Structure formats: structure tokens, C-alpha cells
Amino acid sequence: MTSKASDSGSNLLPAFTSRIAIIITFLVGALFLIDQQLETTFVAAQIEDLVEESNGIRTEKGSFLAEFPPLDGPRLVVGELVVMEVSPITNTVVAYKKHDALLVETPRENIFSYWPITLAMTLLSGFLIIRWNHIQSHFELLVINLILLAVISVLYFVSH
User: Among 27, 57, 87, 118, which one is least packed by beta carbons within 10 Å?
Assistant: First the structure.
């Protein structure tokens, strides 16, 4: 026997729309998790633009938010060659360094450091896909899943 509250919540979205939303969140989560596990590639590119307020760096091969430069350390400048370690699918910058530097830096907004959120979203999506007909609160779980998708999307776009 189902309660009226769960019936009214599940009728807010058609079943087809809900299942499409679940499949999309599962595919996005799986894409990010796979991308994080694949071997990264190294690319070199000249810095095209620096955003002083956020310390953002844009090159023709990728963009990222650099660590705030140390007070006495060298700063990156437009036209300088930077070597970036990028993921193969989403081209997310995992690490970067000046072409002549020994140590690498990590970007401030690296989507890969938020993998537990991506994993939670993917697992919840998988659970909803498998158990859709056997659970009463699919609308509430779908809303949680869509919130996680929004968080992951914002983090991804901020890091690019």
C-alpha cells in the first residue's frame, strides 16, 4: 500500500522524463569517473591570457585556475610556455608547470579532487536505474541526484 504523499511526489515528473534524467546523470558520472582513471597526456602551449582577479590561465590547449603565486616566487606571463598534464576525455588540467620548472603545480579548481561526489551521483543513478519499480521515493532520490549533477557541472565549468 502506498501513501498519498509518495504518489503525489512521483507524479510531478513523467516516468519517461525521470528515467532519462537518471540515465543522463549516470552517463555523466561514469564519463568523469572513467576520465579520472585513464592515463593523462602532457601538452605544452603558450599562455594566451591571464586573468589577474582569479589567476586564471588560458592557453590554446586548455584553461585552468592557477594556484595563487607565492609573494617572492616567479609569476607566469603571457607568451610563456607552460606544460600541462590533461585528462584524455574532458581535457581537464590535472597539473601544470613552467617549461623550465622542476616541480608541478595543481590547479585550484580541479574537478578530479571532487571524485566522491561524482561516485555518489553515479552509484545513486545506478541504484535508481536498477530499483526504479521497487522503491517508493524515487522522486526524492531523483532530486538528490539532480542536485549532485548540478554541483558536478558547476565544479567542471569553474575548473575550465
Answer: 27
Nine cell digits for residue 142 = 531523483
Shared domain for 44 and 105, answered yes or no, is yes
Cell of 84: 600541462
Domain count, the chain: 2
Encode pLDDT of 100-144 as tens digits. Answer: 888 888 887 777 788 899 999 999 999 888 887 777 777 888 888
Q: Do 119 and 152 belong together in one domain? A: yes
What pTM, to 2 d.p., does this model score?
0.72
Each residue of 39-48: pLDDT tens digit? 889 999 999 9
Bridge partners of 17? none
Residue type, 98: K
Task: Report residue 29's pLDDT band, with 50, 70 and 90 as the boundaries.
Answer: very high
Q: Domain residues for 97?
A: 39-109
Q: Kindly report the CATH number assigned to the domain that includes residue 51.
A: 2.40.50
d(CA 58, CA 60): 7
Radius of gyration of the chain (CA): 20
